[in-house]
Design goal:
Elements (H helix, E strand, L loop, with lengths): L16 E6 L2 E7 L19 E6 H10 L4 E4 L1 E3 L2 H12 L2 E2 L4 E3 L6 E7 L2 E7 L17 E7 L6 H8 L3 E5 L21 E2 L3 H8 L4 H8 L5 E5 L5 E4 L6 E4 L12 H12 L6 H15 L12 H9 L6 H5 L3 H7 L7
Helix pairs in contact: 1-6, 4-5, 6-7, 8-10
Length: 340
Amino acid sequence: MDDIPSWAVDRSGEQAIDLLAVGLFFNDLVFSGLPATGPQPGRELRTAPYVGVPGGIANSCIAAARVGLQVSMVSDVGDDTLGRGSLEMLEREGVDTRNCLMHRDWQTPLTVILNYAGDRAMVTAETPHPGACVLRQRSHPPAAVSIAHLQPFAMPWLEAAAEAGTKVIGDSGWDESGEWDLAAMVDLPLCHSFTPNLDEALKFTRTDSPEKALHVLADVVREPVVTLGGEGAMALDRLTGDIVHVPALQVEVVDASGAGDVFNAGWAAGLMTTWPLEQRLRLAVAMASLTVARPGGATTAPTLGQLWNWLTRQPADSALARDYSFLADIATHHQWKRPR
């Protein structure tokens, strides 16, 4: 549906949305297997086959759909071949894209991701935005949980969602302005969680440790999280004061692109449950850890069955089998509880 979003359509008889993901969409071109030194000026590198996948907010959508959540994505997309092809791929993954706004004659942003030295470098090409923007809409479909790419302007839909009881997970990218001002993300106080990586968290809070950063962020949101890359993640519950650290699973990192987005999907799924903080954090960490072991971003995120298979491969008397035994429940029953 070109230039006409579909959130005004009456869908009262359709299945309720678990996760509403609203944010920036990219097409990702992912290269892995590069030498640790990365590309050098004037030299050509040959590497393993590249992977073309939906990126940005789509990563969280795919990962959440793979573990059984009903997911709707809201984003701006170009009507070019890459944009249309990515939406078709998302629909095959079980993601509802009907609330996306497709713009005529606009080139969908493209990010080239180079994986090397245990991390990644990215180059993004994007043309000026064509005008109407879904982030500025007054309302979007209701959902139990939402992931939102926070902006330096207020998003009316987010305020409406938070007032309706939606648990909003705020996400942010690299601050190209260099200001790293939490107050610039005007919708952050409306969020239930905020999930920066360690570098971002320390810059935003002007602190020198994840624990200190969490305490600063807890003045703004109920459950702040700091992702730690290969060290896992830490989270704080403002009501109890509890801080939990969950280490990453030991895997060889092949493609780190989208790891934070997949983590957010796992965190969103956990918010659909009554699990304690540690178990919810473990789910998110496990999903992100298992994703980075293969190239392709969220298209390699684990399904419920794959999480179950991973668990059954752990020695019965191991710490991993004990700590992740709760995964057997969701992998068996294939359903999530809706918060009341």
